[in-house]
């Protein structure tokens, strides 16, 4: 079992601790804190990546605003001075790496959109000619752009953290036809808009995942949106179909881990200083490219 360091906010009402984020419960609102923890191969590594949490949090804020014309979201504020009183002693730490959000009922389906054939989709295509049960044309190369993005939902396993691919028909069984169609259509719309905007900034969003919740009978976007941790980002200037692509996120860490001989079981090894620094800079570069701002 992966061991995650204790949260530093010991007197706040901790609801859940993920690999990267700490979630605190304030009644009808939640405080989401994106830490600098980094996980690879489902293991939280001992070394944080400086300011990584700020980058991920601020990118989600950026996209929540850009997608507001398509769908509502759970964001209330990122102004730490407007947070509940128990948070104020930590406002310097929480600034830029946290958000106060409305508490919604999460839908039990993860909405995955694939714009390019890569990763597990590519492996499945090589074996069967389809991706998650969706038949694709013959002759595609690794990392090819798909003529139409694919919606390939998944659900969480009962035990463990690995996703289980399901068909659209199964999402209908889980959610009902209207809700299943709504989140499918929203996922594709959000991906298409985000991928188009990112491409103008020199970033390919190869695939991504979204999560939705229900609040007061309305479907809203929750969790994170089009971040380097929920998406596969590739630099446009290095893109070439027919091979795997340079990943514009924590690929430096993954490459080092693979070459280190680590067996991918906890605990993870300590990272060299240069790997930490290069990864931190990569995250900051993504934020600057997307938003035009610097942290």
Automatic annotation (TrEMBL):
Residues 16-266 form the SAICAR synthetase/ADE2 N-terminal domain. PROSITE patterns: SAICAR_SYNTHETASE_1, SAICAR_SYNTHETASE_2. One of its GO terms (cellular component) is cytoplasm. Its EC number is 6.3.2.6. It catalyses: 5-amino-1-(5-phospho-D-ribosyl)imidazole-4-carboxylate + L-aspartate + ATP = (2S)-2-[5-amino-1-(5-phospho-beta-D-ribosyl)imidazole-4-carboxamido]succinate + ADP + phosphate + 2 H(+). Keywords: ATP-binding, Ligase, Nucleotide-binding, Purine biosynthesis. GO terms for biological process: 'de novo' IMP biosynthetic process. HAMAP family: SAICAR_synth (MF_00137). Belongs to the SAICAR synthetase family. This is Phosphoribosylaminoimidazole-succinocarboxamide synthase.
């Amino acid at each position: 079992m992966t061991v995650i360091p204790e949260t530093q906010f010991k007197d706040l009402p901790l609801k859940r601790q993920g690999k990267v984020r700490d979630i605190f419960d304030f009644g009808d609102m939640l405080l989401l804190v994106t830490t600098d923890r980094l996980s690879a191969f489902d293991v939280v590594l001992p070394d944080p990546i400086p300011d990584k949490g700020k980058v991920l949090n601020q990118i989600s804020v950026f996209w929540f605003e850009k997608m507001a014309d398509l769908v509502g979201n759970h964001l209330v504020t990122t102004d730490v001075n407007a947070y509940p009183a128990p948070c104020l002693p930590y406002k310097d730490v929480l600034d830029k790496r946290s958000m106060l959000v409305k508490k919604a009922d999460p839908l039990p389906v993860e909405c995955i959109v694939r714009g390019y054939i890569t990763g597990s989709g590519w492996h499945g295509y090589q074996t069967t000619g389809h991706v998650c049960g969706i038949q694709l044309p013959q002759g595609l190369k690794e990392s090819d752009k798909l003529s139409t993005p694919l919606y390939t939902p998944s659900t969480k396993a009962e035990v463990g953290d690995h996703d289980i691919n399901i068909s659209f028909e199964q999402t209908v069984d889980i959610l009902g036809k209207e809700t299943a169609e709504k989140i499918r259509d929203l996922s594709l719309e959000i991906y298409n808009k985000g991928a188009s905007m990112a491409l103008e900034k020199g970033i390919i969003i190869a695939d991504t995942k979204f999560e939705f919740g229900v609040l007061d009978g309305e479907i809203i976007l929750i969790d994170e949106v089009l971040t380097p941790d929920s998406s596969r980002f590739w630099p446009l200037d290095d893109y070439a179909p027919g091979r795997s692509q340079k990943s514009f996120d924590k690929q430096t860490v993954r490459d080092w881990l693979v070459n280190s001989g680590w067996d991918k079981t906890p605990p993870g090894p300590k990272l060299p200083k240069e790997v930490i620094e290069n990864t931190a800079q990569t995250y900051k570069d993504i934020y600057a490219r997307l938003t035009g701002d610097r942290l």
